[in-house]
Design goal:
The structure is a single chain. Strand 1 (9-13), helix 1 (23-33) and strand 2 form a beta-alpha-beta unit. By secondary structure, the protein is α/β, with parallel strands linked by helices. Helices cover 38% and strands 14% of the residues. It folds into two domains: 9-185 and 367-379, 3-Layer(aba) Sandwich (Rossmann fold), CATH 3.40.50; 197-363, Glycogen Phosphorylase B (Rossmann fold). The model has no long low-confidence stretch (mean pLDDT 92). It has helices at 23-33, 83-96, 99-122, 142-154, 163-173, 197-204, 225-233, 251-261, 279-284, 300-306, 320-323, 339-347, 356-363, 368-379; strands spanning 9-13, 37-41, 57-61, 126-130, 157-160, 179-181, 211-216, 240-245, 267-270, 288-290, 312-315, 329-332.
């Protein structure tokens, strides 16, 4: 157990760095402000757990992104002119990157992580895991599911962002003790937010009188972008705009989305990373954010939207029913084939701009220093 009187030394292990998602740097700042000594690393090594730098707590995030094996390539077999070597290179790279081979390599890396964590616990350290996802996304497989099951059993404490995830842990893994419900923090003041609605729309070339739906962030199949495009294109409103911006998980997926968007001038599709200073243009130009996820545990995207005073349309899944209430948006039944389309149409009838101040006031309660203090109690073995 961590000494309550001492400054706890916390090692945050996150393969998702601040350049991809500011969550981890905001959490680091909140913990430091609460009195912890915090270091952030993308990968756990034996050296991190030895000597004077040995932490009291290892707090792990995003197991599904941890230490992913890179593709095996043979650049020495240059394919330019030598046909036999080109064929050999292709055969070797195909064989070495088969799904079964990848899963074996993935399993070995995850097994090494679990071994380090068990040794750390045996030496008196404390392991905490934040459950951002209960199911691996597209890249996941048997190795990820195996490691998640073992990590959930191994961790001294699990941190979840809402009660629905705690309930899912109990149902799926039988884990009921040592589960701390501590909310996801806000993104107020994390991104520049100085442009007006009119300025944001002018910057993106959007009509000032249009009703704008927006989806911002990494574009991945589980987020239901295809369903959003189909539902939006079924709307008859000619003054509606759908704004989709973010890096696609693959070029093939970006092409598939572009094909769905093609032919409708109301769809504005920007398949690239949005620089932090530009986030305000996309969110301040919108009337409402749409997050039609097929599966969800925690939604940082919803907290980001709320941090710009923006309401959210989302399915009644996971954390969304706890987050989206009243002026904060609309929920729809994900089992209803017309549910998303009806929610898009219903959103046109609401006075969202008048509620922005209320949304901003509500989200301000999820400040990172409070979250840091709650996590310190978890590190010390108390309830969150």
């Amino acid at each position: 157990m961590v000494d309550r009187a001492a400054t706890p030394r916390v090692l945050l292990v996150s393969p998702v760095g601040p350049g991809v998602n500011p969550y981890i740097s905001l959490l680091q700042g909140g913990l430091a402000a609460a009195g912890a000594s915090v270091r952030l690393v993308p990968r756990l090594t034996a050296d991190e757990l030895e000597g004077e730098c040995c932490p009291d707590v290892v707090h792990l995030h995003w197991l599904d992104r941890y230490d992913l094996p890179p593709a095996i390539l043979f650049p020495g077999l240059h394919p330019a002119r030598d046909l036999p070597r080109r064929v050999l290179r292709r055969l070797l790279e195909t064989a070495c990157n088969l799904p079964l081979v990848y899963q074996g390599r993935r399993w070995a890396r995850l097994r090494h992580l679990l071994t380090l964590l068990r040794r750390f616990r045996a030496a008196g350290g404390r392991v905490v895991y934040t459950v951002h996802n209960l199911d691996p996304h597209e890249e996941g497989g048997p190795a990820d599911r195996w490691a998640l099951r073992h990590l959930i059993g191994l961790a001294d404490a699990l941190h979840v962002h809402d009660i629905s995830t705690a309930e899912a842990l109990a149902r799926t893994f039988g884990r009921r003790e040592g589960v701390a419900v501590i909310p996801h923090g806000h993104y107020l003041d994390c991104y520049p937010n100085t442009v007006s609605r009119q300025e944001a729309r002018a910057r993106l070339g959007l009509p000032q009188q249009a009703f704008v739906y927006a989806l911002l962030g990494w574009l991945r199949p589980y987020k239901g972008v295809e369903e959003l495009l189909r539902a939006f294109r079924a709307l008859p409103d000619r003054d509606a705009i759908l704004l989709i911006a973010g890096k696609a998980v693959s070029e093939a997926y970006a092409s598939a989305l572009a094909s769905l968007a093609a032919g409708d001038p109301r769809v504005h599709f920007y398949p690239d990373l949005v620089p932090a200073p530009e986030v305000q243009h996309y969110l301040n130009s919108a009337d409402i954010c749409v997050l039609p996820y097929r599966q969800v545990t925690t939604s940082g995207a919803a907290l980001l939207a709320f941090s710009f005073g923006l309401p959210v349309i989302a399915p009644a899944l996971g954390a969304f029913p706890h987050l989206i209430q009243g002026c904060r948006g609309l929920l729809y039944d994900p089992s209803d084939p017309q549910g998303l389309e009806r929610a898009l149409a219903q959103a046109r009838q609401m006075a969202w701009q008048e509620a922005r101040a209320e949304v901003l006031a509500w989200v301000a309660q999820f400040d990172w220093v409070t979250i840091g203090n709650q996590l310190l109690r978890v590190y010390q073995g108390s309830d969150g």
